[in-house]
Amino acid sequence: MRYISTRGAAPTLDFRGATLAGLASDGGLYVPDHWPTLSADEIAGLAGLSYVDTAVAVMAPFIGDSLSRDELRALCEQAYGRFSHAAVTPLRQLDHDQWVLELFHGPTLAFKDVALQLLGLLFERFLKDDDGAPLTIVGATSGDTGSAAIDAVAGREKIDIFMLHPAGRVSDVQRRQMTTVRAPNVHNIGIRGDFDTAQALVKAMFNDPAFSGRFRLSAVNSINWARLMAQVVYYFYAAVRLGAPGRPIAFSVPTGNFGDVFAGYVAARMGLPIERLIVATNVNDILHRALSAGDYSSATVVPTATPSMDIQVSSNFERLLFDLGDRDGAALAAQMQGFEASRAMRLTNAQHGGAAAHLASASVNADGMALAMRWAHEHAGELIDPHTAIALSAARSAAFDCPTVTLATAHPAKFPEAVERATGLSPALPARVGDLFEREEAFVTLDATFDAVSAYIAERATPRS
To answer: Is 0.90 topped by the overall pTM?
Structure first.
């Protein structure tokens, strides 16, 4: 398996190289040079397997010779051994055709743990016999990626992590899960701006030859292919428990940066019978506008009770446009450069039509979100977080003649105020993180400029020798 850039000009890499690189050197994102497929019999054979064995079966084709199956299994056992539920990602039934897939049983209570616990171990494994400089991870978070990434790499050798978050625009729980981790290789940075600005700063540092040439940079955001690969697994794990490949399954996904949705798209390309992927957004609806009308135009970010979705530039959408555009890297590079200059673009007919074959979309406002939280509690006895509620609202409005699985991406206790407003109940933090508000925080707040952030990192990161 080899990895190519969506913009066509970066070197082709193996899985190890793509994992350590994160963002491609031409500004694009790495994707496999082809989609491996599982036959109907192979998918049926996943029924009854543990999560670890499912993960090995689904991910091994993407890893190639970079790890043996035994090495991959050992890493998966270590990563998912930290989850509080033996099923890792258990399903819960809400009514006759609505289900939720709980992705929040990892150490930081969010779906990002499913991928990042493994990614941290992959970094450590690939760096073990490497004589190069330490890895400098630079990332941006709209809430959950930061805490999951920090937990995954805190204290690990040959890794420093610098995580940017939009100051004042993440929940108290999300912020504290990052800023109370006191490890010498962890650096938290609040920026005076929104998530899109933080994400743009990260990309700018990767694309600046003077900065990226001085440090060995890598990424933990979903721009890193290994993260998306790990997320493909739970689509298979859930679907076979609901009858796949004998019947199709629909999934509703709360999304901002499109990574979790793209993982579902990959599962479909691998042969999983997915009826539709519902792209569920809040009022920051660039993805809904792009998928419904072909209009991928950025607007002002509106702060909401679902901060992880308060995004107007969805990095992983580029991967979908590349795959639907006949994998023409040069054409996509020109298309994306035009968007970066004007903050607006039209999808081509091939991109728009191809997306419609796989994806539906919906934009859900605050009232719809609250009603979904209230319905889940009153009719199914479940407390769900506001992001999950956005996707559940979209799922209940869809009309698919098959089971529909909503991805529950965060524990409701990460957003207690929103849950209490909708249901009258304030969810408690699980005991394993119950002392979160007693821990001391440490972070800096910087202006959202390339000079301020890159200088701060340069003073603390280990340069190449």
So the answer is: yes
